[in-house]
Amino acid sequence: MDLVPALPEPLRQPLKSVLGPATAKVMAEHLGLHTVGDLLHHYPRRYEERGQLTHLADLPMDEHVTVVAQVADARLHTFASSRAPRGKGQRLEVTITDGSGRLQLVFFGNGVHKPHKELLPGTRALFAGKVSVFHRRLQLAHPAYELLKGDAEETVESWAGALIPIYPATAKLESWKIGKAVQTVLPSAQEAVDPLPAALRAGRGLVPLPEALLKIHRPHTKADIADARARLKWDEAFVLQVALARRRHAETQLPAVPRKPGPHGLLAAFDDRLPFTLTEGQRKVSREIFDDLATDHPMHRLLQGEVGSGKTLVALRAMLAVVDAGGQAAMLAPTEVLAQQHHRSVTEMMGELAEGGMLGGAEHATKVVLLTGSMGAAARRRALLDLATGEAGLVIGTHALIEDKVQFHDLGLVVVDEQHRFGVEQRDALRGKGKQPPHLLVMTATPIPRTVAMTVFGDLETSVLDQLPAGRSPIASHVVPAADKPHFLARAWERVREEVSQGHQAYVVCPRIGDEEDDPGKAAGKKPPEEGADKRPPLAVLEVAEQLAKGPLQGLKVEVLHGRMQPDDKDAVMRRFAAGDTDVLVATTVIEVGVNVPNATVMVITDADRFGVSQLHQLRGRVGRGSAPGLCLLVTEMPEASAARQRLNAVAATLDGFELSRIDLEQRREGDVLGQAQSGARTSLRVLAVIEDEEIIAQAREEAAAVVAADPALEHLPGLRTALDALLDEDREQYLEKG
Fold it and tell me: Does the pTM exceed 0.70?
C-alpha cells in the first residue's frame, strides 16, 4: 500500500536515478519496490541492539557490545588442526585500545583476509560483538566492524546507535544495503501527504506520517518504534476500511427489486414439510436475510457458521422466498461434487415442491436445475431454456453459470458457497445477469474471527450461525502417533471395522491422489514449513485404498473418490456411499465441504500434519451428522515436540471453529493472513496483524464508516483520496479478491 502518494518518483529512471540502476533493478524485480514511496513503506522487520558504547575497562561478559577503539597491533598466525592438518589454518589476532583498556579480537579461516588488509595499526573503527573469555582474557570473536573515516563523531553516532533496523531482504540485496538505500530517500519523507484526517490523528494521539516514517527507519529509542508502528498500523487499517466502507455505501445506492415472500407460497409450503424445527440461530439469521431482501437496494451479506450448523437450509429458504416473490435464485458452488451434492440435497428437502411443471408436482412447485461444465449437450440446452423462460426458479451450478450463454428470466438472488474460492470478478459477473443488481448471499463454512471478517469481507454485512441443530452428535477427536505408537494405528483400523459392523460407514482422507505424473512431493496438501524435504511423499488415495482393501479392512466394501474422476463417476460413487452400499470411502479433500452422509460416523485422516487447521476442522465436520456419535482420528508421524503435533493437538482439543481459526491465523507466517485479499504483493499488510490488532481494526471501521457517511466522495480529504487511489490503482476493487 503506497501511502506516500506524493512520492511517486521512480527509483530508476533513464536519465537520473534516485538509487544506482543495479540496486533499483533488484528492488523492483525481487521486492516489488518501484517508487520512493514504496521504499519508505518497506519497513524493518526487527531491530538489532548493538549494545551501548562501552569502555574497554568495564566490558560485561556474554553481552553484545559496541566499542570505538584504535588498532594497536595485528598478527596473523598459522596452526595445524583437524580441518587444516598441514599447518595451513589461519588465525588473525588484533589488539585494540580506547585508552581505558585493551581487548583482543580474533578472526579465523577465510574470515581473516578482509580484516588483515583493513585493520592496520593506527586504524580507528567501531567494533560490535559478543564478549567472551579465552585463556582468561576478554575477546570478541569475528566482530562486525566499520572503519571510521572523515567526521568520526557523526559516524560513531549513526553506527553505534542502539537500534539497527533489519529489513526484509533477498539473496540479491542484503538488509544493510536496503538500509543505506532507505537513508538516501528518507529526507523525502517530509513531503509525504498524510492520509489520516487531522481530527482523527489528534483524537487518537498519533504522530504525523513524516515523523512516523523517520522513526520506523531511524529510531533512537524503543519508544520511537512503538510510536511509528502505532501510527502506521492505523494507516493500513483505516485506508482499507475506508475502501470497504465506500464499497458498502456504493451498494446502498444501487437499485434492486424488493423480494418479499407471500404468506401462503412456496416458502410456507416448504417450512410445513420440514421434519424438524429450525434452531433459534437459523430463525434469527433468516430474519436478517428476509429484512435485507425486502429492501430496494441489494443485500450484500456474509453467512458464516460452524460446520453442520445448517447454512444450506438457511440459504435455501432465502432462495425460496425470492422465487415466491416472482424471481429466480442461483447458487454458485466451487466444485462439481459440491454442486451435485447441493442439487441432490435441495431436491430431496423440497420433494414434490421441486417438481414444477411435472406430473405430481405440488401447487407452488418450481423447477430446480443443475448446470455444470461437464453436462451433456441436450441436458445443458434444456437447463438453459428453463432459466431463460423462468420455468426454473432455482439453479445450482459451478462456474458454468457465469458463461455468456447463460441468461436468466429474472435473477433476484445469488448465493455463493465457499466465497474464498471465488474472486470478486466472478461473483460480479453472475450478479450482472440480473435486470437490476440481484441480492447477494455469500456462505463460508470456515469460521472467521470477527476482525478477519471485517478486514477481508468488510464490504459484507455478517450473519453468524454458531448453534448446531438438535440431533447432531458430538465428535470425539484423537491424535494417532503412527511412528511413536504403531499399535495405535492398528487400533484405528479396528475402530473402523467396529463402526462398520454396527451398520455405520467411514471416510479415510489422504493428501494426494496417487496417479500424478509430476513429483509426488509437490502434490502434498497445505504443507507447513517445518516438514522438511527429506520426508517421504504424502500418502495417496489409490495406494492407501488398495492397501486397506487387502489388509486391515479386508472384506469391507472400499471405494475411492478424487477430483480427477469423471463427474458421472464421482456422482455415482457419492450416491452409492450415501445409499449405504459402500462401507469405506477413501478420498482426497473433495469431501471437505457440503458432503452430507448422516450414517458416516468415523473419519481417519492420514498424514494429518499435511493439512491446515481450518481444513482439518472442515473435514471432521463430515462425521457426526446423524444421531450416532462421530469419531475423527488424526494420523501423523511427526514427533511429539513438533509444531505440527501441537497444531493437531489443538484441533483434537476443541470443536469450536472460531477458536481454531484464531489458532490457525496466529500460527501462520506473517503475510499469509489475508491471502490475496488485496491486489498484488505491494498492497499487503505490513505492520497490521489481523488477530493482534483487533481493536485497531474495529475502531478504524467505525471511523471509516463515519468519514464515508459524512463525505462519500472524500472531497474534503484529498490525502485520503490519493492514498485510496494508490491502494486500488491496478485493478480497482480487486483488493477484495478472496484467495
Answer: no
Tell which phi-psi region holds residue 564, choosing left (phi > 0), alpha (psi between -120 and 50) or beta.
Answer: alpha
For the residues 456-473, what does the mean pLDDT come to?
Answer: 75
Higher local confidence (pLDDT), 373 or 9:
373
Q: Are 575 and 526 in contact (CB under 8 A)?
A: no
For the chain, the distance separating the N- and C-terminal CA atoms, rounded to the nearest angstrom, is 18
Compute the distance between CA of residue 257 and CA of residue 252 in angstroms, rounded to an integer: 13
| Distance between CA atoms of residues 400 and 185, nearest Å | 50
Dihedral pair phi/psi, residue 534, rounded to 5°: -85, 5
Residue in the structure block whose three cell numbers are 437496494: 297
Residue 51 has which C-alpha cell? 549494545
Torsion of CA 716, 718, 722, 725, to 10 degrees: 20
| Non-local CB neighbours of 33 within 8 Å, separated by 6+ positions | 11, 27, 39, 42
CA nearest neighbour of 56 among 149, 179, 143? 143
* Dist. CA 635–CA 648, nearest whole Å: 9
Query: So what's the pLDDT on residue 3?
Result: 47
**Residue holding cell 418450481?**
366
Give Cα 382 to chain centroid, integer Å. Answer: 40
User: H or E segment at 644?
Assistant: helix 643-653
Q: Measured between alpha carbons, how far is 567 from 581 in angstroms, rounded to an integer?
A: 19
Q: Write the single-letter amino acid at 165.
A: P
Cα distance between residue 438 and residue 586, in whole Å: 40
Q: State the burial class of residue 618 (Cβ atoms within 10 Å of its Cβ: 0-12, 13-18, 19+).
A: buried
